[in-house]
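Late entry, evening session. Most of the bench is empty. Finally got around to the prediction I had been postponing all week. Sequence below, unchanged from the version circulated by S.P.
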Amino acid sequence: MCSVHDTVEFEKRGIPATVFLTQIFKNSAVHTFRSKGMDGHPLIELPHPISNLNRDEMREVTLRYVDEFVRQLTS
């Protein structure tokens, strides 16, 4: 999971980071964070699937997670 690995690398450099993923990838992300010594690192879990959403639907889904995204990066 490249996005999880990128998140780990940013965090190691002191740069707050999180990862967006769909529900189907959550377990993999949790295990990857654990294996990298970051057990319990927060993530943002979107509904699955999202690849079939049109632009307006994706915007609606994305806007539901803005507050959580900001909270994870600033806490």
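Two things to note before I forget:
The beta strands are 20-22, 44-46.
The chain has one domain: 2-74.
Will write this up properly tomorrow.
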